[in-house]
Amino acid sequence: MHMVDGEHGHCHGHEHDHDHEHCHDHGHEHTHDHSHEGCSCGCGGHDHKPGSEQEALLSYMLDHNKHHAAELADVAKKFREVGKEDVAVQIEKAIENFDKGNLYLSLALSLVQ
């Protein structure tokens, strides 16, 4: 039996209680509580802390990379303003790669949520 929590999109193959804690660099934590009854998989109601930690790290890294890309866009703009078009173009190429990498990180994150 697979259960999908509509609010958070988490998919679970068995029933039990667990929390997901996510730390972000913007100064607060997110805790998502899920309540499941009558787990018959023999897990003893274990939690998913290792997976949650990895999910939180992935979420943090995605957010972190997005901030770096935005900062680099500002750097490119400043180089362009002082006539260093060639430098700005190279930085913008790097930003395109950040964006591509962030797409893959976002897809990976959606698979674990």
From TrEMBL:
Residues 1-39 are annotated as: Disordered. Residues 55-111 form the DUF8180 domain. It holds the Pfam family DUF8180. Residues 1-37 have a biased composition (Basic and acidic residues). This is Cobalt transporter. It comes from Laedolimicola ammoniilytica.
